[in-house]
Amino acid sequence: MTTADPAPDAPGLDPRRVLVFREVARAGSLSGAARTLGWTQPAVSQHLARLERDAGTALVLRGPAGVTLTEAGRGLLARADAVAAELRAAAGELAALAEARTGTVRLVAFPSAAATLVPDALAALHAERPEVRVGLEEAEPPEAVAQVLADDADLALVFGYDGPPDGLGPLAFTALYDEPVRLVVGPGAGAVRLADLADADWVGGCPRCRGHLVACCEAAGFTPRVQHSTDDYVVVQNLVARGVGVTVLPETALRAYRHDGVRVLEEPALGRRRVGLAYRPGAETVPATAALVAHLRRAASTI
Amino acid sequence: MTTADPAPDAPGLDPRRVLVFREVARAGSLSGAARTLGWTQPAVSQHLARLERDAGTALVLRGPAGVTLTEAGRGLLARADAVAAELRAAAGELAALAEARTGTVRLVAFPSAAATLVPDALAALHAERPEVRVGLEEAEPPEAVAQVLADDADLALVFGYDGPPDGLGPLAFTALYDEPVRLVVGPGAGAVRLADLADADWVGGCPRCRGHLVACCEAAGFTPRVQHSTDDYVVVQNLVARGVGVTVLPETALRAYRHDGVRVLEEPALGRRRVGLAYRPGAETVPATAALVAHLRRAASTI
DNA sequence: TCGACCCATAAGTCATGCTTGGGTCCATGA
DNA sequence: TCATGGACCCAAGCATGACTTATGGGTCGA
Q: What is the CATH number of domain B179-272?
């Protein structure tokens, strides 16, 4: 239910004029207000005259030594002060955000990225800008992208195989790094090529990783038997080291943790994994977000 | 101690643009905001672009289906809503004052005027505009004028002899009525002219009334012996009726109360008393004040 | 592939807003 | 007493700013 405007033809008060009136009230004269505004006196006079015309009543009484407020003017001054306070507060908040002195970035990252890259970046960001807060959540790339699309997150740290992930929709993507995918086998295995592992048992990762594995194997002429699945690259290596199966892992996972009992083999047929950030176009210009992106990029370059 | 501006070159947010941004946020798109504002889409786009330039950060992220707010935009929206609420409230208050639906008039009146004129006017005003409040104080003309000059009152009901009162300074004066001053004597007196009362005892009124009496008597060739003084025209007539002395009273005082035991004589030498209103120039345009003035004038015309 | 919707940019025109240069009224001081 | 200065208003000129039209890019859905 919308309340009907009491005056349908009301032009609504021009907020700029209201602030000019506030200066007049504070200075006690039109000339004084003009001086503080850096204007000439007639300019203030015209603004005030039109404001009074819009208001329908006098706001000040002109005297030889300046002006005094009417009842309407006293009431409006209180409102004008509130308006000025809000604008001042808004300007302060915006300045803090613009300088990235403060702000909150909602980051969604895939689980294993949270292992090294994200902690490094967050630590550096916090050291540089202690007031910037980062909300971190873990989600696989498809869910992470969905969260950004739904405006539940600002930044998604995602990966794709041999290129950016798909399903980005209108989101922008910027790569952080690109890494090879390795073949990881047990100590007793003699095979060194993917095609030799048609009869092996496989340990898969997340659904998309498994999909990529299956695609690579089929390109090599067989369909892998995936017996176990886990995201955890420590668990995976323990399984492989004990001969339960073989697997594939990206380079960074192996650099974060390397089990002594596995062999890591180069296998170009497994392609490369591209890790990067997905975000709504323009979000990279938000200062706090830009700061986090910069630190993520720096952390990625040291991997 | 003034706090230094955090950004000395800050242009300060243009409040009009802030309200435009608010419409964008509420509509969810620039085009939608343009429609509700009755503008074209580029107009809104330019306003928002400049506001973002002034703010130093993006406020919305442009998407193919509209815009979504950034953190800065969400913060600014809250402030903008507060600004809009203040402006709306101010407009409502001003409208009520402009229509004289409400308002407060501070009236200072000389004591005997409060007897008939002021009550009549206040009753009529209250019947017509029950929300308009009148603060009534009693004071003799010089004090009443001083109160208006000091902005402690809006309207002074004052009188002067043979013209407006003096000491008005920059105040405006408008006459309400003009009345003769009568000679009031006891029942036994045979004299009918002022000059015959050189040896009588006199009852005086307020200081200025006494001054006028003395001036008239001196013009008639004698200095009156003023033995008693009271403002109250009932008391005065009682004193005169009992032969304590003679006095002068304005016509309205005699119409408000007439003691049977006094004789009232016309005496042109006593001049006339002019009753009117003193006010700061422009104050008569304030709607509530204008309404009171109109009712005072109407009440005066029926005297 | 087309059309509908979103947005940005460029250029033009018109209105607004500020300035300059008058003028009046009051107060103050020589 | 008159002159000065400070307050305000009014009228006119002019430049800035704001809104318009016109155009182009982009995404989504039919």
A: 3.40.190.10
Give the C-alpha separation, A295 to A302, whole Å.
11
CATH 3.30.465.10 assigned to domain B105-174+274-301? The reply is no
pLDDT, one tens digit per residue, over A150-194 is 899 999 999 999 888 888 888 899 999 999 999 999 887 666 788
Q: How far apart are CA A23 and CA A17, in angstroms?
A: 10
Judging contacts by C-beta atoms under 8 Å, the chain B residues touching residue A61 are 280-283
**B159 to chain A, closest Cα gap in Å:** 23
* Closest Cβ opposite residue B71 in set A58, A103, A281: A103
Say if residues A204 and A228 touch (Cβ distance below 8 Å).
Answer: yes
Q: For domain A106-303, is the CATH number 3.40.190.290?
A: yes
CATH of domain A15-98: 1.10.10.10
**B122-168 pLDDT tens trace:** 999 999 999 999 999 999 888 999 999 889 999 999 999 888 888 88
The answer to whether the CB atoms of A82 and B86 lie below 8 A apart is: yes
B212 touches strand D (CB under 7 A): no
Give the phi and the psi of residue A262 in degrees, each rounded to 5.
Answer: -120, 155
E strand or H helix that includes residue B36:
helix B30-37
Does the CB of A35 fall within 7 Å of any strand C atom? Answer: no
SS3 (DSSP) at B221: coil
The candidate with the shortest Cα–Cα distance to A24, out of A57, A1, A46, is: A46
CB contact under 8 A, A93 and B79: yes
- pTM for this entry: 0.87
CA–CA gap between residue B29 and residue B41 (Å, rounded): 10
Shortest Cα distance, chain B CAs vs residue A61, angstroms: 6
Phi, then psi, of A164 in degrees rounded to 5: -70, 155
Sort B199 into a burial class: Cβ within 10 Å, 0-12 / 13-18 / 19+.
exposed
From B80, B90, B283, residue closest to A61, measured CB to CB? B283
pLDDT given at position A4: 36
> Is A84 within 8 Å of A19 (Cβ atoms)?
yes
Exposure pattern of A199-225 as b/e (b: 16+ CB <10 Å)? Answer: ebbbbbbbebbbebbbebbeebebebe
User: Which of the nucleotides in strand D have any atom less than 7 Å away from a protein CB atom?
Assistant: 6-12, 18-22, 26-28
